[in-house]
Specification:
With about 100 residues, the protein is mostly helical. Helix 3 packs across helix 4. The longest helix has 19 residues. The protein is elongated.
């Protein structure tokens, strides 16, 4: 991946958003691994870097970046709840007494 390609990659943009937001402290393993993935991709990780990626970086990257993503996440959660609990069905009314 070239520098130009990585700058337009959604994962690259997402990682840099969270770095700039202060989620990864410079000098920590998470910071280094996040930058490596942003620049060279997940396939470049070896050994313990994979665990850092899975346990420390992915949970952060799964957070919404902006209001639009927060809204989308809320909609998806509502759909899952409706499917799980059958909330899309109209409530049955009891006959009047």
């Amino acid at each position: 991946m070239t520098d130009t390609d990585s700058m337009h990659d959604p994962l690259h943009e997402r990682i840099h958003h969270f770095i700039e937001a202060g989620y990864f402290e410079e000098g920590t393993p998470s910071y280094g691994v996040a930058l490596q993935v942003a620049d060279r991709g997940v396939g470049s990780l070896i050994g313990g870097q994979v665990a850092v990626w899975q346990n420390h970086i992915l949970p952060v990257l799964s957070k919404p970046m902006n209001d639009e993503e927060r809204f989308q996440c809320a909609l998806e959660q509502d759909r899952e709840d409706e499917a799980r609990f059958g909330l899309d069905q109209p409530a049955k009314q009891k006959p009047a007494g």
